Amino acid sequence: MSSLEEQLKEVQEQIRTNPKDVLAHYNLGVTLMRLGRGEEGLAAYKKAIEFVTDRHYSAFPHFNLGSVHYTKKEINEQ
User: Fold this and answer.
1) What contacts 68, CB < 8 A, 6 or more positions away?
2) What is the pTM of this model?
3) Which of 49, 60, 73, 78 is the least buried, fewest Cβ under 10 Å from its Cβ?
């Protein structure tokens, strides 16, 4: 098992323990993206944003979500 797969299992366990943990969902997104599971990674970033209650934690998932869309050329340049 690769270290990314181990990290994935750890993050999934964190989410099972605390389903609204913003950082766990963010870390899940990062891990899934690194594993090449882009659509699942995007969903995890969106879930992290959904659970943000402290604005200090909102920047990371928003930035990564935007970066993915930019990389995929899904943002209209104006």
Assistant:
1) 33, 38, 41, 42, 45
2) 0.79
3) 78
